[in-house]
Specification:
Elements lengths: L3 H4 L3 E5 L4 E5 L8 H28 L9 H4 L3 H7 L3 H6 L1 H13 L4 H12 L5 H16 L11 H10 L9 H21 L1 H7 L32
Antiparallel strand pairs: 1-2
Length: 234
C-alpha cells in the first residue's frame, strides 16, 4: 500500500497518545499559521459587516424610498392639484419644490433644480462682497467643464457666463438659470405630473416607490469570490 503522505502531500497525519486527528495545512504560511488564519478570518468578517452596513445605508437613503417623501406626503390633494397649474406654481411652494426635487433624484437629474436653487440664493446676496465667493462656487460646481454637477447649457450661454465670472454681478447667472428653468419646465415637469409620486399625492395616497432609471451598486456576490473560509477539519 502506498504511503498516504505521497498521495496527499498537503495532508498532515499526526497522532497523539489519545487519538489520531487530521488537519488541512495551508501552504507557504510562516510563523503561527493558526493565529494568522484567525486574524484573516476576522478581517474578512469585518469586511463583510462593513459592506452590509453600506448596503443598509444606501437602502435607507435611497431617493425612491417612501420614507424620503414624508414632507410631500403631508400635502393635501387640493394643494397637489394646484402644482399642475404651472411650473411657477410648483416651485413657489416649499412642499412642491421638495416633491419635484425628489422626483428628479429618481431620474438622477437633481443637478438642474440644485443649480436653480443656488441661483435664487445668489440673487439674494446683499453686498458685492458676497457675490464673488458664491459665484465661484456655483461656477465650479455646475458650469465649468467636468464640474461635479455640470448642467446642460448651450455653448453661447456657457461662454458668456464664464466671461462674467471674474467680475460677477447679480445678473451673472440669469441666462444660464433661464436655460435650465426652460429645460425642466418643458421636459421634467410634464413627466413629474405623470409620475406615481405626484398622482398618489393628488389622490391622497402614500407615495409608492418610483422606478429608478438606472441602478446603483453597493456590492455583489462577486466581491467575495476568492475569499475562502478558514477552518480546520478534525
Amino acid at each position: 500500500m502506498e504511503n498516504p503522505l505521497l498521495l496527499f502531500p498537503q495532508l498532515n497525519i499526526s497522532a497523539s497518545k489519545d487519538k489520531a486527528y487530521y488537519k488541512i495545512m495551508k501552504p507557504a504560511i510562516k510563523e503561527e499559521p493558526h493565529k494568522s488564519g484567525k486574524s484573516g478570518a476576522k478581517q474578512k468578517r469585518n469586511r463583510l459587516s462593513l459592506l452590509l452596513q453600506k448596503s443598509e445605508f444606501h437602502e435607507g437613503d435611497h431617493p425612491g424610498k417612501p420614507g424620503n417623501l414624508t414632507k410631500a406626503a403631508s400635502v393635501s390633494p387640493g394643494e397637489a392639484v394646484k402644482w399642475g397649474e404651472s411650473f411657477d406654481k410648483l416651485l413657489s411652494e416649499k412642499a412642491g419644490l421638495d416633491a419635484f426635487t425628489k422626483f428628479l433624484k429618481t431620474e438622477f437629474s437633481e443637478e438642474n433644480i440644485e443649480f436653480w436653487i443656488a441661483c435664487e440664493d445668489y440673487k439674494k446676496s446683499k453686498t458685492a462682497h458676497e457675490l464673488l465667493p458664491k459665484a465661484k462656487t456655483i461656477y465650479e460646481t455646475f458650469i465649468q467643464k467636468d464640474a461635479p454637477k455640470e448642467v446642460n447649457l448651450d455653448f453661447q450661454t456657457k461662454e458668456v457666463t464664464s466671461q462674467n465670472i471674474e467680475q460677477p454681478v447679480i445678473t451673472t447667472f440669469d441666462a444660464a438659470q433661464n436655460t435650465v428653468y426652460r429645460l425642466m419646465e418643458q421636459d421634467s415637469y410634464p413627466r413629474f405630473l405623470r409620475s406615481d409620486l405626484y398622482l398618489n399625492l393628488v389622490k391622497g395616497r402614500n407615495p409608492s416607490r418610483p422606478t429608478l432609471r438606472r441602478r446603483s451598486r453597493s456590492f455583489t456576490v462577486n466581491d467575495f469570490q476568492g475569499v475562502r473560509p478558514d477552518f480546520i477539519i478534525w
